[in-house]
C-alpha cells in the first residue's frame, strides 16, 4: 500500500522467510538537533546518546504495527512518515528527551517516541533470493531462501556472517546482504 506522506510497504514472502519491503526513497528535513556526547573507549571513540548513554548510531526495531516519524521531537511537529510494520529495523541517529531520531535503509525517517521502539534486533534482506546456509561458510548447505525486503530476526554475528531467522527457518547469511547490522559488529 503506497501512501502520500507516509512510508508505503508491500509484502515479500519466499519459501519459509516472511517479511515486508519498503518502497521508494525520501529525504527528510530535520528541524531539531540533538546533543551527543563522545566517550573514549579503550579501542576507539564511541559516540553515546545524552539520554540513554547507549551508542549512537545503533539499531532498534519498530515495536508496534505503526509508528509516526515526525519532523521534530514533539507531538506538535508534522508527521513526515508512518512506518507500518512491527519489527521493521531502524537506525537511531540522535536522542532528545523521550524522542529518538531514526532512519530506515533508504535514510527516510524522523523523530519517533521511544515507546514505539524495541531493542529487539531485526534486519532487512537486501539481496534477492538470498541463500540461508547451515553454517557461516560459502559452501554450507542451503536451508532456505529469502526475498529482498524480507524482515528477519537477527541472531549471532561473526566478522563476515550473521545468523537470521524468520518463518520458522534459520540460517547464516553474509553480513553484506542484510541491513540492520554494522560491518564490524559482532553479536553472540
From TrEMBL:
Signal peptide: 1-26
Entries under InterPro entries matching the protein: DUF1058, SH3-like_bac-type
Superkingdom per UniProt: Bacteria
Keywords associated with the record: Signal
Record bears the keyword Membrane: no
SH3b domain segment(s): 57-120, 121-182
Protein name as annotated: SH3 domain-containing protein
UniProt source species: Paracoccus fistulariae
Amino acid at each position: 500500500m503506497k501512501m502520500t506522506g507516509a512510508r508505503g510497504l508491500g509484502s515479500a514472502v519466499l519459501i519459509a522467510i516472511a517479511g515486508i519491503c519498503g518502497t521508494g526513497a525520501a529525504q527528510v528535513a530535520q528541524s531539531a538537533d540533538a546533543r551527543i556526547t563522545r566517550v573514549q573507549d579503550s579501542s576507539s571513540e564511541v559516540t553515546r546518546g545524552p539520554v540513554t548513554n547507549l551508542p549512537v548510531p545503533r539499531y532498534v526495531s519498530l515495536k508496534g504495527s505503526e509508528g509516526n516519524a515526525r519532523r521534530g521531537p514533539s507531538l506538535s511537529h508534522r508527521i513526515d512518515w508512518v512506518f507500518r510494520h512491527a519489527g521493521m529495523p531502524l537506525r537511531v541517529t540522535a536522542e532528545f528527551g523521550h524522542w529518538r531520531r531514526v532512519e530506515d535503509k533508504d535514510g527516510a525517517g524522523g523523530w519517533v517516541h521511544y515507546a514505539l521502539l524495541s531493542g529487539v534486533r531485526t534486519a532487512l534482506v537486501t539481496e534477492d533470493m538470498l541463500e540461508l546456509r547451515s553454517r557461516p561458510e560459502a559452501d554450507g548447505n542451503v536451508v532456505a531462501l529469502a526475498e529482498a525486503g524480507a524482515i528477519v530476526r537477527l541472531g549471532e554475528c561473526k566478522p563476515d556472517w550473521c545468523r537470521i531467522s524468520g518463518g520458522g527457518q534459520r540460517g547464516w547469511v553474509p553480513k553484506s546482504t542484510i541491513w540492520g547490522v554494522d560491518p564490524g559488529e559482532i553479536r553472540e
